[in-house]
Amino acid sequence: MSGFTNQQQNRMRSLPSVHKLAYHPAIVNWREEYSYTAEEVTALAQQLIEQERKRLLSGEGEPQECHQNIDDWVMQLKEAVEKLHTPSIVPVINGTGIILHTNLGRAVLSERAVEQMVQVARSYSNLEYNVAAGSRGSRHELVEHLVTRITGAEAAMVVNNNAAAVFLILRELAKGREVLISRGQLVEIGGSFRISEIMEESGAILREVGTTNKTHPYDYERAISSETALVMRVHTSNFTITGFTEEVRLPELVQIAHSRELPVYEDLGSGVLYDLAGHGIGQEPVASAVIKAGADVISFSGDKLLGGPQAGIIAGKSELINRLKKNQLARILRVDKVTLAALEATLLAYLKPELAIKEIPTLRAILTPADEIKARVYAFAGRLKEQTHIEVRICKGESEVGGGTLPGVRLPTWTAAIRCASMSTASLEKAFRRYQPAIIGRVQDDWFILDFRTIHHSQEGTILLAINQIVDP
Ligand SMILES: *Cc1c(COP(=O)(O)O)cnc(C)c1O
């Protein structure tokens, strides 16, 4: 152990041996009671000790309190084993007010979608079987008729997500050839999706047109050549360019492209099927308006404003969609039956717009009036039992739609701001976050804030219980 300080040597000597920990009587009895195997317990014991050894060697701080004696190690090991046997993806309560929170799983599915998923998952299904004809069917056809009805397109298909849709479209329609796109639309979404990089991976050649703030019709006209395969528009879904800006409007772009026999593809990003702009919320064009304006292909996400499962929906001219369906990538990017079941149930709601806004949690959360939320926060605060330590204020706030959609849209909302005399606000936030289920809010001006726009009525009881346990354990 030369090269280490005396202190480091002493600390490492204090580590238990793997055998001593894994075969500690308290562990052996416990593991037999819960039928955990000796192998997994030993492996985890080794991992825990190794982690601590590395930490001590790196000189990062003192031995942790939880590793002071063998009983502490035993407790740590039990926790590690239990954690291994517990699902790691679990529900959380979203008090951030961000409706489509990418880190929290984006859209919450409708009850109808959840029921449909469960039914299809529990049983065999007609995923690729045409029951009426007694012959092989296509999974694409399961939702195609709904997408075409809702968007007005001739044909449609579904892939894993919208990033996959963009990739498939560029690959099939423009591999080795040029795609024209305005510089103002070269977007990055969520740090992991860049149009320019997807384009490069797909084998299509990016041909930038115009400038960041202004692109004119003649910019496209001049850029079209025998190398051009596609004209692409990307909906700048997660930012707004304001001021001295100009983009070529879709009908005009369609005219330019079609006069040179080129297809136009619009990546809509969010994919609005319900007219939110009609409620004065944002300016997202509904998918059917984009098809009507002449786009030959469109694509959008299933789990953004549509409010369904993760999916990429492609709609457009039959001739182009048929080519996409035949591409080998369609097989690689296909979605499973559970996703299709959820997507179909979500799309069914859109056949009746008044049903969509009642059934689909994402639309409901966006459209809930601030007064309704206010009444709920007041009722919630009224149910808090008299606590000397805790202070709750009801405050006005602003929710965001999030998920890289409706940039700049702020929805007026009401929040519960919580503070505690016996605990710092940072500790309070941590305690809520580590509660089961985790309750995620934000800290602002030394208050812990919960926005009730994204909290379901049925979760309020859990939050009340959490407050009582955290503040008054
Ligand atoms: C969100 C988004 C994507 C990526 O969609 P995913 O479904 O997250 O893969 C692509 N393009 C635009 C314009 C988007 O807003």
Fold and architecture overview:
This protein has 473 residues and is an alpha/beta fold. The protein has helices spanning 6-13, 18-22, 25-33, 38-57, 70-84, 111-122, 141-151, 162-174, 195-202, 217-223, 250-259, 287-292, 318-326, 328-332, 337-350, 353-359, 361-367, 370-383, 425-434, 460-471; strands at residues 93-94, 129-130, 135-136, 155-159, 178-182, 188-189, 193-194, 205-209, 228-234, 264-269, 297-301, 312-316, 390-400, 410-420, 439-440, 442-444, 447-451. It has 20 helices and 17 strands. Helix 4 packs across helix 5 (70-84). The longest helix has 20 residues, at 38-57. It is globular and about 80 Å long. 39% of the residues are buried. The model has no long low-confidence stretch (mean pLDDT 92). The structure holds pyridoxal-5'-phosphate.
